[in-house]
Every structure is written in C-alpha cells, then in structure tokens.
Amino acid sequence: MHAITVSMNGAGCKLSVAQSKVCSPAMLDDVSGCRRCVRVFWTVVDRPFQRLTATNQPKRRTTMINESMSILRDGEQDWLPIPLPGAEGVFVKVLKADEEMDRVVVKIRFEPGTRMPRHIHHCRAVAYTISGHWEYDEGKFGPGEAAWEDEGNDHTPWSDEGAELFIVFDGRNGRYLDNILPCGTVVKLDMPFLKAFEGVSLKEAAEVDVQNLVEVIAPAA
Ligand SMILES: [Fe+2]
Fold it and tell me: How far is the CA of 208 from the centre of ligand 1 (A)?
C-alpha cells in the first residue's frame, strides 16, 4: 500500500506528496494508479469550495453553557460540500467534533439522485432521518427512522429523492470512516479532518489548511 497526503490551503487546494509515508514523489511516478486517484480527489476537493466561497460569512451557532453542556444550533451554519469523488451533491454540517469524547455530530443533506462513497466504519453511528428518504443495500429509511450502525459496517448510502439526516458518530481512538473510491483508493476521514470543519462557514472551509489531516491510501500497484 502507498500512503500519501492531500492538502488544501487558502490559495486553493494543492496536492502534496511531501508527507508520503511510503512513497516518495519519484516512486509515485511509477505508480500510475496512485497518481490518477489522487488527481481525481484533488480536482473534486478543489472545485466545490472555490465555487461557493464568495457568498458566505462566518456563522457559528454553538453556545457553551458550561464545561459540560453546550447548545448546538445549525440553522444558519453553511452546508459544506463533501470533498470526495462521487459525493457531488452531498453536503455536511459538522455541528460538533469533540476530541475528548471522541464523538462527532453532523447533519448530512443528499440532493436528489446523489450518493456517498462506499465507506467502512471504525466508529459507531446513529443516523436519524429528518426528511426525505435514503438507503443502502441493507435498508431504506424515511422520516423518523434511524440507522443504528456498529463498527465494521460497510455500505454505500444514496438517495433518489433527497434527504436530510442528523448523525452522531462515536469514534474509536479518533478513527471514523474509511471511504473506498471506485478505483480502490481509501480516503480516511478521521477526527483531525472532522475537527477542522467543525462549525465553519464555506469561506472558512476554503481557508482550512488540512495538510496531514487527510490520509489517502492508494491500492497496491
Ligand atoms: Fe455509514
């Protein structure tokens, strides 16, 4: 397996292979599949944020009542495009990413006819359906219904009509979701990535420097 790192910065998203754990850039030249996967990932990450950043302002809506209690308000928080190949039209709000509790709370919105990449859970999840319908091979969910997912679940959610979900993830040592791209590349979205997008606006999301926050593992050559 070949590990590489993808970064985004304020000037737009840029790919970096400098943090490679296994492959040097020279080695990547010899791994055509790896280079192709990363190029696709970078392209998809780059475009949504660049396209949407101009019209948004910071809108944090979390109130900390005391050290053990907060109020989360998502009403005016921006929907962020999910920066994964194949997830175009799926948006997220990271309402809370608590490193101490190893818990992340998000809302997800599927536009009609969209899907998430196949993903494998290192976390537990409760995915409550607020509106619309969504499904994966194991079941279909409508308003008021929730998916109760343990570690190890491996599935590909989609929605034909569109849907909005409220999801609580309980991580395992900061690990959350391994997303499997059609080419076999694994994009690992764990606590550092999720924390970076907690409560941010689109404008702020475009400025997040997530170098070293996203690990991409290419399929074996
Ligand atoms: Fe899932």
Answer: 25
